[in-house]
Amino acid sequence: MSKANERRQGMSSVRTSGPVLGGILLLLAVWFGWNSYAQWRQDAVAQGLEQARDRAVQDVGQAMATQASQLDAVLKQPPVIAALAGGDALAAASAIRERFKGAEDVQVLPGDLAAAYANPKDFGYARLSLLESAQVADRAQVRVVRDAKQVRLGVAAAVRLGGQPAVAYARLPLLRLTGPLDAIAAPDSAYLAVRQGSYNVAQQGDMALADAAETLARPLGNSGLRVAAAVPQGDSGPLGLGTVGCAIVAALLLIIAVLLVLASRGQVALPRRRAADQSSADEPTFSQSLQHDASVASEARALDAEASPAPPALVPAVQVAAGMFRAYDIRGVVGKDLNPGVAALIGQAIGSVMQAQGLRDVVVGRDGRLSGPELSNGLIEGLRRAGCNVTDIGLAPTPVVYFGAYELRAGSCVAVTGSHNPPDYNGFKIVVGGETLSGAAIAELHQRINEGRLHTAATPGELEQRDISDAYIQRIADDVQLDRPIKVVVDAGNGVAGEIAPRLLEAIGADVVPLYCDIDGTFPNHHPDPSEPHNLNDLVKMVQRFDADIGVAFDGDADRLGVVTKEGAMVFPDRLLMLFAADVLQRNPGALVIYDVKCTGKLSDYVLRNGGSPLMWKTGHSLIKSKMRETDAELAGEMSGHFFFKERWYGFDDGIYAAARLLEILAQREQTPSEVLDALPESVSTPEIKVPVEGDAHALVAQFVARAQTGEESPFESARLSTIDGLRADFIDGWGLVRASNTTPILVLRFEADSEAALQRIRTLFRNELQTLLPEHSVAF
């Protein structure tokens, strides 16, 4: 064929196919353009909502500050000062009300708040929390409260009534708070709300978005209130291109379409050569180019198929951060690492593992964190997508979720919880077929998601909703009853134990005084971590104020327990484990008792003297439970406050059940609870010491271990070394431990000795060794 004929044939092909291809590309350009516009509109709505939210934070916050300032100003007026000095609470309240414009009611209450503590449920937990906060603050505090069987705005400030501590409290119309929100116009398709805990004080917009509103929430200072916001869930456009990317693709497609149409009419000349020295005989036509490209792509796919016998991995539309998949569970920051889409992928991955083991039934529960409902819904969606039948027990402590796996004969469960982490964290604790997932099993979930190895059932699994809290309480109360009443203060730290723990302890015969038992995922009073001594300060005060026998505290999801005595002493969990061990061994002589590497060196001897077999093991609730199953141990415990009873229970960590067993033991003794606890062996010791580090904490500990094992030149030569989890060095007069946390980038240390001098010697030894490994940092502990 001549060059001219080839050219004429190519032009004929373009004239024939050009309009068709141009039309197709034009339609694609319109589609990409529409997606660009839709995403621009979506971004505009999101931007408008964020502006409305920020204005709401400012205006509502200003309204609260105004009410607080007004009460502070009223309390400084001479007639009010005189009325308070007179000591007449009614007269002082009347003087305040006359000067506090708009106040519906004013009370001046004694500082001991005895009437409120006598019946906190009827008085109102939120109102009690407001008065407690006011007592320790240097200015008036504002909260949304339930008063006179209605939701109102409460303002309170510390005063002195007749020279004695007291609290002035004013009840205001809720409109004082919600008025500014009503004046703000959020986009119609969005959602905006003022919330306190799980209660919506005021809301506007699309109510269907309420469960997804915590991702964009912003707090209102330390008031416990926040402004929550949500926009409809959108996507990132075709191929994840976004607004600008879609616009660029649309423009390029439009240009190509126009050029093709013009070329088909002969109005645009197609290039004849690729290079000056290349003959026209070597130049392919447009159709030939397309055929060549298709052929190359086909050959490439064939080569890829030969090189990779497995099918290519499916990349998930939602990227999942590997850092969330930790040694014991999955945990991340909401909005950054975690959202409902990620939760759905995790649920589908868990469901895929279950399906591989022939399991289909799973129990799901969540703690009181604000992000809990939306993450739980996402998780359940993923589990059902994998064909699993889900029983949703709703708001429940993690031990109750574990209990549900046994009670409902599911064998598998997932607790949506951030445990003791800050409010913006959440995560998942997972049990599959009775085995708590940890280590490689947790990592495999991430691998499944990344590789697209997710089972999708032909028919989604079923969903059932049940409340098993009464069954949990009844199961324990049928077995545990106190021989005599014990007065106990229960500090739930605004965590999920707040509703069920007081009920359970009352059911077994205790006299319960609740503290911070209103469930509030912002944790407004203190961090829900009883292993930190400063988090127990309020509990100590309450125990002493009410002359209680003992105080107990729980972490955010209630699988850990903290204890204080009437004298204000914190009873470390390893010493509590001694008490539990002696009790269990009375009925099970020779039983195995497991404890983690952070526990006291006196525990082993104590277990042996009581006829048991002690075993030290790695830290971590999943690792301890796995070791219990392997060894058939009757009891285990960790320094962090996890207690695991197999005797008379199911072997999982349960802070609420442990509290019941503790009260049972104390009620059986003739001595007071403080005398029983003080009699337990004790040494000079430190709590857990947490040292943040940069880089890989595990690698640093590995270097520490290597230096300690260098032989005669090592300062640890005289110690018995254990390396099952970091390095524990047991000397003749004490021991020290350094290990890398499996959940956060920190080193965890603890020291114990027979004397203060020995403690400081061992502590200094560890500090000097760490300083050698970290010469550019100041190591202080």
Walk me through what this model shows.
- Pathway: Nucleotide-sugar biosynthesis; GDP-alpha-D-mannose biosynthesis; alpha-D-mannose 1-phosphate from D-fructose 6-phosphate: step 2/2.
- Residues 277-291 have a biased composition (Polar residues).
- Keywords: Isomerase, Magnesium, Membrane, Metal-binding, Phosphoprotein, Transmembrane, Transmembrane helix.
- The chain crosses the membrane at residues 239-263.
- This protein has 781 residues and is an alpha+beta fold.
- The chain has 4 domains: 14-267, no CATH class; 322-463, Alpha-D-Glucose-1,6-Bisphosphate, subunit A, domain 3 (Alpha-D-Glucose-1,6-Bisphosphate, Chain A, domain 3), CATH 3.40.120; 471-682, 3-Layer(aba) Sandwich (Alpha-D-Glucose-1,6-Bisphosphate, Chain A, domain 3); 685-773, TATA-Binding Protein (2-Layer Sandwich).
- Helix content is 43%, strand content 20%.
- The strands form 6 sheets. Strands 9, 10, 11, 12, 13, 14 and 15 form a 7-stranded mixed sheet that branches. Strands 25, 26, 27, 28, 29 and 30 form a 6-stranded antiparallel sheet that branches. The chain has a 5-stranded mixed sheet with strand order 17-16-18-19-20, with helices on both faces.
- Strand 23 (635-637) and strand 24 (643-645) form a beta hairpin.
- Helix 1 runs antiparallel to helix 7, helix 1 packs antiparallel against helix 8 and helix 2 runs antiparallel to helix 3 (89-99).
- The termini are far apart.
- The relative contact order is 0.07.
